[in-house]
Amino acid sequence: MERRDDPREAVELPPPRTPGPAPRPSPEVAHDLHWARDLRGAVRCSALLLAPLLLIDHAAGTLTGPRVLLWTGLGALLLLVLYPVRVAVGEGWLSTRGLLGTRRVRTDHLVSVRCLDGVGQRLVLRDTSGARVEIDPRLLVANPALWHRLAEDARGSALRGSLVCGTTALRRVSERVDDEAARAVFKLSGLD
Length: 192
Prior knowledge:
By secondary structure, the chain is an alpha+beta fold. It has helices at about 35-60, 65-80, 135-140, 145-160, 165-190; strands at about 30, 85-90, 95-100, 100-105, 110-115, 120-125, 130-135.
């Protein structure tokens, strides 16, 4: 892989995919390591809601077909709410895949990175083509490989001058990642 001397040089888009077998993921692609665990947790919570509802209704003698459908629908609704988004980051891109589809943003052409505060903190990434992705910053803290890939591309965007808003939000996430790494080192060494 050759390096570019001028960071402002335009990056070429990859060629469009051709029909055929799906390409294997590149070893340079970082995935959320905790996604499967989070999915199991969402299924477990849904089951822990559904089972008592069915048992209580059965014990009361009021369990009927429509009530089973009602309770099952309620459990399925909870699963939809808790379903985790799958995040992957590769060289120059970040994608999120949820129940409603896949969103992708070019991290090597970022325009802004904003942190939305509220009940659930979100990091909003926008690129030069207008694509937008929202992710939980805790996901980056828990997966340093995701953060490293994103931070490297964001630095490239800043060098090119396309990243006009968001260095503060990125610095905050970087500090959280560093703090978590330091805590892990202290915990492993027995100094915590």
